[in-house]
């Protein structure tokens, strides 16, 4: 693992000197890697010659110091996994290396959209995410950035930042990896007991219901999703929305065409997000 900016720059200089035309892909993570990350590495290898993975538990993304401290750190396991996948460089800096001034660092603003959906629950989340992503883009200068589709709002905002700041990076996305019960693979799934996991599995089921009823309009697909969750006391729904993929703004009743159904909820003290592509009307 490379833990300094100087070390990362030296490694990338070597790579570019050895193969000047090689394409570089970046996968940015906060560690505690799982099967979803393996798919990202495989996809990155398909679209680029060199794969760089960053591991940085970004304190700017967390609502409280306690939440930041509680996030699992699995540095050794992550390093072994990435080594087995043949990743070309793993950048895992300490907080003082990437954020020398801590939270006082210069920041990127996600704007109004950064305060909707995920941003409503975690107002500083997207500003913190984009700030570190911009630093990584500047340091690695990748040709491609690879993301999983579980967090579509993140992908939308990163694409907009790339456009607005002229980074010239292609964004490639990978389908969400799911368990047999439909739940997206994540570090939180393993923390649930059997009852909570069964309840959490209603979230992707609600999205399936939304998709199945989308031909009847936005209100009908939201009502169908809500009906799927009704009566399950373990679920605390935070939001259920249908948005336009081009703007990420809510779709009005009467609109037809492709849309995204978004859901976020807490189960057993753990927070989950998911989404599904649907066609309204």
Write a concise keyword list for the protein shown above.
alpha/beta, 5-stranded parallel β-sheet, 3-stranded antiparallel β-sheet, 20% strand
| Global outline | globular
Class derived from helix and strand content? alpha/beta
Looking across the biggest beta sheet, what order are the strands in? 3-2-1-4-5
| Cα end-to-end separation | 50 Å
| Helix count from the secondary structure assignment | 11
Précis, in short:
This protein is α/β, with parallel strands linked by helices and 281 residues long. Helices cover 39% and strands 20% of the residues. The strands form 2 sheets. It has a 5-stranded parallel β-sheet, with helices on both faces. Strands 6-7-8 form a 3-stranded antiparallel β-sheet.
